[in-house]
Amino acid sequence: MSKGIEVIYQDDVLKPLTPIEGLKKNERTWIIICSNAHKTELRKLVRTLTHEEAKEMRKTIDEEFERIEGVW
Question: Domain segments of the chain: what residues?
Answer without folding.
Answer: 7-68
